[in-house]
Amino acid sequence: MSIAVVTGAGGELGRAIARRLAVDGHAVAVVDIDTESVEATRKDVEAHGGAVRAWTLDLRDADAVNEMFEVVALQSGGTGILVNNAAIYPSTPFLEVSPAEYDDVHAVNQRGYWLCAQAAARQMKEAGGGAIVNITSIVAHGGWPALASYAASKGAAGALTRALARELGPFGIRVNAVSPGAFPTAAEEIHENPAAYHQFVVDHQALKRRGAPEELASVVSFLAGPESSFVTGQTIEVNGGWVMV
Q: Which pTM does this prediction carry?
């Protein structure tokens, strides 16, 4: 029996994704750099009847990433679904971004996705197929100030999605992306005035309300499941109609 691996599972969006995949019947491995938050996700998934294992992992550590996937293969029969969701998003004006900060963002948001996808795809190839879902962002389209490093990393994740879909398709591995809009999560702490930001978001969306993490999770569930069996290389925007591409 294969397992679904969800990175960044300690946050609100990752937790909702892990919970939904468990409700769909998948055993889930939840991964986050923060032990406390990933343990909270483990308990949440278990409360919904899911079989779950929690991993504290820094995606910048290539050896640790590969070791985690090796253990998953030994204990759970391999990775059948990977959701690359982990991300960091420092808010720094472009002219003040240091090379170290830029490298750190890409080490998690782009290189981390690469490492996880490569380790998972090796197992999926051996099993005859699987599904990878990369979480990108509306920020890659919108050109938000003070988030250039994050926007660049999320644009790279979209390009990686298409490249991997092309290359891994012959092995029965589907690779898609979901691009969330401005969901009300802890990430909004980077904005000085949360109330004003909330109104800004609603004003720009076609749907005049904020999205719920479960609404993002349902799209991830679709792309990870059999109902999307002929869908690969696509990015689905889940942003209430803010950006339409």
A: 0.95
Per the CB < 8 A criterion, the answer to whether 180 and 87 are in contact is no
With beta carbons less than 8 A apart as the criterion, state whether 136 and 235 touch: yes
Distance CA 22, CA 28 (A): 6
Q: With H, G, I as helix, E, B as strand and everything else as coil, classify residue 134.
A: strand
**Helix 112-127 vs helix 148-168: angle between axes, to the nearest 10 degrees?**
20
Catalytic residues: 150
Using CA atoms, how far apart are residues 203 and 158, in angstroms rounded to an integer?
Answer: 26
* Mean per-residue pLDDT pooled into runs of 10, the chain (245 residues): 92 97 97 98 96 96 98 94 97 97 98 98 98 97 90 97 98 98 76 81 93 97 98 97 90
Q: Where are the domains of the chain?
A: 3-238
DSSP string, 13-61: HHHHHHHHHHHTT-EEEEEES-HHHHHHHHHHHHHTT--EEEEE--TT-
Q: Identify whether the C-beta of residue 66 lies closer than 8 Å to the C-beta of residue 115.
A: yes
Which superfamily does 3-238 belong to?
A: NAD(P)-binding Rossmann-like Domain (3.40.50.720)
